[in-house]
Amino acid sequence: MAETLALDSTLTKAEQYRQLLPQIEALTTGEPDLVANLANTAAALRQAFGFFWVGFYLVKGNELVLGPFQGPIACTRIRHGKGVCGSSWARAETIVVPDVEAFPGHIACSSDSRSEIVVPIFKEGQVVAVLDVDSNQLNDFDHDDQAALERIMQLAARWF
User: In the CATH scheme, what is the homologous superfamily, with its name and number, of domain 13-159?
Assistant: First the structure.
């Protein structure tokens, strides 16, 4: 696949995700390297939607460790159950945060982050990583984001 995305910004967000998913699948099909696939997925999501920060944290022992990302410098390690990422890992579920200031224990890697969605990646029933997406706008994530990002993370599970 070419290293460009074909996106139509006149479409609804749900339609844009439907347009993006097969492109991410084509971009990663046949590539066995986890880091390459995570990096291109983070880049594609940020390019498609202009999110403030998009990246992955990988489960290593009792911590999430920063993986490939797009955006400003980020927190390197997050403990199990801490912040939005650690909470998503502990609960094994997607967490949508309309206002990060209102989330108890939020870890502020950047004061510019205003809302967040974190989606776990499962392998054999265990969380092996999380996708973290931050916006510099309040209440920027909804059901369309959750449904589409969960589908993309089901694809990502194949790379682990």
Answer: GAF domain (3.30.450.40)
The model's pLDDT over 90-122, given as tens digits with 9 standing for 90+, comes to 999 999 999 999 998 787 777 789 999 999 999
Strand boundaries in 21-94, DSSP class E? 53-60, 63-70, 77-79
Q: Give me the sheet containing 63-70, strands edge to edge.
A: 77-79, 63-70, 53-60, 126-135, 115-123, 95-97
Domain boundaries, given as residue ranges, for the chain = 13-159
* pTM greater than 0.90 (yes/no): yes
- Measured in degrees and rounded to the nearest 5, phi and psi for residue 20 equal -80, -40
Q: Which of 140, 93, 143 is nearest to 116 (CA)?
A: 140
